[in-house]
Predict the 3D structure of the following.
Amino acid sequence: MSNALENLLTEDRVFVPSPDFAKTANAQPGIYEQAEEDWAGYWMNQALKRVSWFEEPQSALDDANPPFYKWFTGGRLNLSYNCLDRHLEKAADKVAYHWIGEPGDKRTITYRDLHRQVGQFANALKALGLKKGDTAALYMGMVPELPVAMLACARLGVVHSAVFGGFSSDALADRINDARSTVVITQDFAWRAGKEVALKANADIALERTPSVRNVVVLRRTGSPVAMQEGRDLWWDEAIAGQPDTCEPEQLDSEDPLYILYTSGTTGKPKGIVHTQAGYLTQVLTTHSQVFDLKPDTDIYWCAADIGWVTGHSYIVYGPLGNGATSLIYEGAPNFPDFDRLWQIIEEYKVNILYTAPTAIRSFMKWGDEYPQKHDLSSLRLLGSVGEPINPEAWMWYHRVIGGERCPVVDTWWQTETGAIMISPLPGITKTKPGSATRPLPGLSADVVDEDGNSVPLGGGGFLVLDRPWPSMARTIYGDPDRFEATYWSRFPGRYFPGDGAKRDTDGYFWLLGRVDDIMLVAGHNISTTEVESALVSHPSVAEAAVVGRKDEVTGQAIAAFVTLRGNVTGDDALLKELRDHVAATIGPIAKPKSIVFTPDLPKTRSGKIMRRLLRDISENRQLGDVTTLANESVVEDIAAMATAQTTED
Ligand code: 6R9
C-alpha cells in the first residue's frame, strides 16, 4: 500500500445499548479506563479472579525476549480442572452441553457426566502410553467426544492438534507429521447434510505416511463398517473399558503448551500455531464473559462454529466450560433437513446467545426470511459475528430478522493466532455501528499504520497492528520460531502484524477491511475488497459478493466482481448495469466493478472465508493455485466457465 487505504464506505447508523441491558451487563462503564491505568496488572487481576490455580503466578508479563512473550510465569494450573472439577461442588448436575445430532438424536451432558467421561478417557490415553508433552491428533466431527478428547489431553498435559473433519487425508497427514502426533483420535463416519463423511477411511489413507502414529482410537458414530488395523486401531469403547472415571489432573506450568492449531494463511505450508495454558485461559474466560455477557446460571449459549476451528476451541470448549455455561452443540448442516434447522433449535432450546459467521448470515439471507419467521426467536438476547468482515447489510438483517431489533450485535475481530477476541463491542457499553468491530477490548491495544509504521490519523486506512502483548497470544509456530518472527513481527518491528487492513473513523472505531493481500490498486487508489463487496451486498438483489483486482493495462488493476443473487432473482444485463451504477452511487465511480459475473456460489475455505486468490486466478486466466482448503472444489470450475461466457466491460 503506497498510499493510505481509501476510505469509501460511510455508515452512520448507530445503535445504543438499551438501558435494561446496560444495567445488568457484566462489563460496566469505567472498565477501559481502569484497565488502561495498568494493563498488565488488569490481566493479572483477571487471571487471579477467573482461574483456579494450584500455584498462583508471580508476575503478569515477562517481556525479556520479544516476540517470545510469557504470561503468568510461576503459575501452576490445569485447564481440564478449570473446566470441570471446580464446578462439581456447586453445579455438578448443571447441563454443560445439550448435544443435537444431525439425524435428530439428542444427548444432555452435565458437568458431572463430562468430568467422568474426561477422567475415563484420560486414563485410556495414559494406558496407550501418552504423557505430558506428547501430541495427539483429533480428526472428528461435532460430537461430544471431541471436547472430551480435548479435555482429556489437557488433563494430562498432552498437546492436542485438532484437524477439521472436512479436511482431506493429505491435509491430515501433513498436520500429523508436522506435530509428530503419536495417537490419532477419530470416528467411523460423521453426519453432514444427510451423508456419511468417511473420517476413518480418510485417516487410513493419511496413516500410510505418518510414521509417528502408534495408535488410532475410533469412536463409533454412524455404525457403518470401517477397516480396523490389528494392533494399531481400537474402538473408543474398548479404550475406556475398565478404566476408572477419575484421573488426577497434571499440575502444569503456565507456559506449558496446550494445543497446536494449523492455520493456512494464503501461501505456503500451514502454520502450527501454539497456544499455552494460563494466558490463553485467562483471556478466553474474560472475553467470553464480557463480550457475550454470559450469565452462567440462566443463559443457554450457542456458538455455531466447528470445534475444529479456533472459534470452537475458545468459545465452545474452554471459554464456556471454564465459565460454567450451558451450551449447545449441533452436529450437522444448517440446512438439513430444511433451511430452518437453526431457528427450530433456537426455539426448542430457548437459546439466549448466538455466535455465528457472516458467511452463514449471508446464506440465511439468501434462503429467505420465511425460515426464521416460522419460529419463536424471542429467547435471543445477544448476537455475535466472527470470521470475516460483516457487511453492514448483513449486520442489519441479523439485527432485524434474527434479533428482533432487541439484541445487541457484537462483531468480534480476532484470529487463530490471537487465541481470543481482540476487537469487539462490549454489549452494555458500546454504541455499535453496522460493520464495525468498534475498538480493542479493555487491556488491549491496536493501531492503524501506513507503510512506514506511522499511525494513520482518524478517518484514514492502512495496516492493522497490535502494539502491545496480550495473554492469549500465539507463542510460536510449532517447530519454526524464525517463521513466527518473520511472519508476524518483522513487517513493523516490535508490533504484531495480523495481515489485515483496517480504517478508523473519526470516533476511533475500527473497520476491518480484509486481508491486505486482497487489497486492490486501481488507478493509484488502494481499495479494499470489503468495501466494494459491502456496496454490492447493500443492493436488494444481491446475497453475496466477492471482488478481486485483476491486471489491467490502463488502471493497473481493474475490479472484477462475482455476485450471488438472492432467492428468485435472475442475473441479466439490466441488473448488471444497475449493480455497477449502484456501487458508483454508494461509494464512488472509482470503485465501479469493470466486470461482474453472476454465479450460484463462491469459493470458500472450509471455515467459510471467501478465497479471493482463486477468483484472481480465474480473472487472469491462470492455472488455479492450491485448492486443498476449499470446501467445494467444483465451484471454481463452474465460475471459470461462467466468467468466460459472460464478461462485461465498459
Ligand atoms: C476467529 C477467526 C482470522 C482472520 C482475520 C480476519 C478475518 C475474523 C473478523 C475478521 C473482519 C471480523 N476475521 N473475524 N475480519 N471482522 N469480525 O476467524 O480466526 O480463522 O484464524 O481467521 O479472519 O481477516 O485475520 P481465523
About this structure: The mean pLDDT is 95. The two ends are 27 Å apart (CA to CA). Residues 263, 309-311, 386-389, 411-416, 437, 498-500, 512, 515, 607 surround 6R9 (CB under 6 Å). Residues 111-127 form the longest helix (17 residues).
